Amino acid sequence: MRVEIVLLALGVGACIWALRVLPLRLDMRDVPAGSRWARFFAATGVAAIASLFAAGVIPSLQDAPFATVLGCLSVMGIYAVSGSTVTATIIGSLIYGIAFSYF
Amino acid sequence: MNNSRGLKGAFFSGAMVGVPIVLGYLPIAFSFGVAATRAGLSVVEAVSLSLLIYSGAAQFVAIALIAAGAPFLVAFLTLVGMSLRHVLYGPSLMRAAGQRAHFGAVWGFGLTDEVFGAALAALARGQVFSDRFMLALAGSAYAAWVGGTYLGAMAGAAALQDWPMVDATLGFMLTALFLALLLSILRAAQMTIIVVSVGVVAVVGAFVSPVAGLLTGMIAGAIVGTVRDAG
Question: In this predicted complex, what is the ipTM?
Answer without folding.
Answer: 0.85
